[in-house]
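Q: What would this chain look like folded?
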Amino acid sequence: MKIKVLLLLCLSAILFLGACGGKEANTNTNVAVASPTPTPIPKTTESAATDPNLKPKIEEALKKGGFSDVTVDTSGPKVVIRGTVAKGKLPEVVKTVMEANGGKPVDNQVTEK
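A: My prediction, written as structure tokens:
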């Protein structure tokens, strides 16, 4: 009699675990799976992204505007302008450079006389 009860309990436990799925079954579909993040590509230098024709283009626009005392440096991530202009002409210089530059960042180091 004890063997029959023990056998019945073992069969019940096996059937119960089989119906539940045990350790292997995972039916949770709400689990978010982490996607791998792409590896960023490092830039070797910041000046590699600058246009080689940008400096002559800006210098030409400045000469057309009559600003011959302003120099242009495009070796960094921003265009740097240096030099001196007459009083009240600073906004015009910046506007000329921004238009020739295509609206990219400009570091203004120009002073007024």
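The two ends are 113 Å apart (CA to CA).
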